[in-house]
Amino acid sequence: MIQIGLGGGCHWCTEAVFQSLKGVLRVKQGWISARETPAYSEAVIVCFDPESISLKDLVEVHLRTHSSTSQHFLRNKYRSAVYTFSEIQQQEVLVLLGEFDKSFEKSLITIALSFADFKENSEEFRQYYARDPGKPFCKNYIDPKLQLLLKKFNKLVDPNKLKLSALPD
Fold this sequence. Notes:
about 35% helix
């Protein structure tokens, strides 16, 4: 099992996206700080089996399911980042970000940072989408991301994990 930290949008959204993928064993939702910047930002830690899903696939899903090219006033709360757990992983992520940057109309603002600390969200907010996908927030913000996931990354989606409310009619 390998870990990678991902932040960019609401951690409820990010949690639901990555919980839907094959090879993802666990998603921890909360706030991450980095060695380069100690301020905490909403993010998830994705624990995955590299034999079932690649780091490249995870990074691409991450970049495509949040505003990875948009600098906005909430970027301190929603830092667009990949948090790495080793120097080797850091170098791999930097290469991937460089490769993916070419496939976007605007330049990526997503940065690779060295993981420092994690504060897990309280129990009542974990599994946010899984507990009640019918909530207005889920329907308005998470369902569109899951629809995108099904459309662009269908081969990576585990149909047993994806909630039925996210499936097309």
